Amino acid sequence: MQRDTIFISYSRHDETACEDLVRHLRVILDEDSPLLVFSDMRIETSEKWKLKIESEMGRALVSVFLVSSRFLTSKFVGSVEIPIAVIADHQGLAKIACLYLAPVGEFKRKVKTPDGELITFRLSDYQGINDPKRALSGLDDHEREELLARSAAEIVRLAKSHRDALVEAEQQRQ
Fold first, then answer.
1. Closest of 134, 162, 161 to residue 148, by C-alpha
2. pTM value?
3. Do strands 108-112 and 118-122 pair parallel, antiparallel, or not at all (unpaired)?
4. Is the separation of the CB atoms in 104 and 74 below 8 Å?
5. Cα angle: 172, vertex 173, 174; to 5 degrees
6. Mind listing the pLDDT tens digit for each residue in 17-34?
7. Residue 174 class from Cβ within 10 Å (0-12 exposed, 13-18 middle, 19+ buried)?
8. Which run of H or of E encompasses 165?
9. d(CA 4, CA 156)
10. What digits encode the pLDDT tens for the residues 56-72?
11. How many whole angstroms separate alpha carbon 155 and alpha carbon 149?
């Protein structure tokens, strides 16, 4: 399966932040861009939403976690989206990028890979796009827009860089 997607994982309570990030990503990515942006807001009526999310995560170059306490306590995020992203990261298939919406405490989860390996995911092991101490919730409107613009640029840079690395690895295998 081709990996060409920036997948945004968030809590429904943080939908405005997701919409804002998508807007900034669209500024950078033109209509002809080979990179796609997906959040569950793109799921159409009558689609099987869980299968759609799992399918799009399977295409992700980057899974962007919009981190807040609501995100970290979401049952669906914790049982589906975080494990899929962590396994893809562990396998070298995708990257994880954390954008801190609000300060959060230490978070870790055990994730079982398809071959039964147990890996520990610690949020603090991943360099965030922003410092958790400078989360979106503590910024004024101008600072918030600046951070979202920088975040979108960094996410696109990461997706392109990882896509290039995957292509190069595939060429070396042939």
1. 134
2. 0.93
3. antiparallel
4. no
5. 90
6. 999 999 999 999 987 788
7. exposed
8. helix 141-173
9. 11
10. 889 999 999 999 999 99
11. 10
